[in-house]
Fold:
Amino acid sequence: MGVKNRYSKMLKRENLRNTSHRQSILEVMEASREPVSAETLYLTLRGKGISISMSTVYRALDVLVERNIIAKTDFTDNNRSLFEIKREEHRHHLVCVKCKKIIPVTECPFHEYASALEERFGFSITSHKLEMFGYCRKCSKDSDEK
Ligand SMILES: [Zn+2]
Ligand SMILES: [Zn+2]
Structure:
């Protein structure tokens, strides 16, 4: 669960069939920490014993780019394109109740917990929110001085 589930949700959200080729392409992209070329994808998939043609890879990439699931970057110098999964900007916030300052926090410790909850309750979690309230550095210092 977890990763695979997330891809099928992404595909479902865009009304795309969750074909094994699309799924495999997204998996390879996720596993590689940097953007990959269509050729690298093709070779990696073949290396995993997946029977796919170069034209299928190109076609799948086109669809995924069109639906905004992956991003394509063109490098005009060597005529090459690289692809990577678009990550949703997911963040939490620290909200100062005194000066109302909002500090964004980009780390999220909840993804694994969410998977555990999905399993436990048979619930399909699509998002979550978390805001923490308190005093920012400046405001907590001000109140100490009183
Ligand atoms: Zn404050
Ligand atoms: Zn989160």
About this structure: The chain has a mean pLDDT of 84. The longest helix spans residues 54-66. Helices lie at 3-13, 20-31, 38-47, 54-66, 111-121, 137-144. Residues 92-144 form a domain with the Dna Ligase; domain 1 fold (CATH 3.30.1490.190).
